[in-house]
């Protein structure tokens, strides 16, 4: 089901995604974490950020992919405050550890919002986690500091 959802998400049709979501639910796959993560991505690709969030909220269990996906959805759709809200929830949750992908997405959100102070705090965390050499994180730090994202 994850492969089918992933392939169909490239079509970017809300109707197709919702139809597949209904099929997944009828077949009892709706509580599978991989299916949930793929639906978050599929809804985001067709511009349905609210449906991505609803999917995230109803997932009984979340892994780092779930959290990173939701942060990235908000960051990529120009909703930095919501991305930061999800990151704060993840940091407080402590059941899942964040990683380089998480920090890169949060730095993207900071770049979109011009939140240089928050970005500096995230950069401090990058240094603490010894991720300065990570290509994705490094690029996000540069983007945030250069103000190249508007």
TrEMBL record:
Gene3D superfamilies hit by this protein: Tetratricopeptide repeat domain
PPR repeats: 32-66
Keyword Repeat: yes
Keyword vocabulary terms for this entry: Repeat
InterPro entries linked: PPR_At4g14850-like_plant (IPR046960), PPR_rpt (IPR002885), TPR-like_helical_dom_sf (IPR011990)
A molecular-function term among this protein's GO annotations: RNA binding
GO biological process: one example: RNA modification
PANTHER family: OS07G0578800 PROTEIN-RELATED
Name of the featured protein: Pentatricopeptide repeat-containing protein
Lineage: Eukaryota, Viridiplantae, Streptophyta, Embryophyta, Tracheophyta
């Amino acid at each position: 089901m994850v492969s089918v959802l992933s392939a169909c998400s490239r079509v970017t049709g809300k109707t197709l995604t919702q139809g597949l979501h209904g099929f997944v639910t009828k077949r009892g796959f709706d509580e599978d974490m991989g299916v949930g993560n793929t639906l978050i991505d599929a809804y985001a690709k067709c511009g349905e950020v609210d449906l991505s969030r609803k999917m995230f909220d109803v997932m009984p269990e979340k892994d780092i992919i779930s959290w990173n996906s939701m942060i990235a959805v908000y960051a990529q759709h120009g909703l930095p405050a919501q991305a930061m809200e999800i990151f704060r929830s993840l940091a407080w949750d402590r059941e899942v550890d964040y990683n380089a992908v998480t920090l890169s997405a949060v730095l993207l959100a900071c770049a979109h919002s011009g939140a240089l102070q928050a970005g500096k705090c995230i950069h401090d965390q990058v240094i603490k986690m010894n991720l300065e050499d990570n290509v994705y994180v490094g690029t996000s730090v540069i983007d945030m500091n250069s103000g190249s994202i508007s």
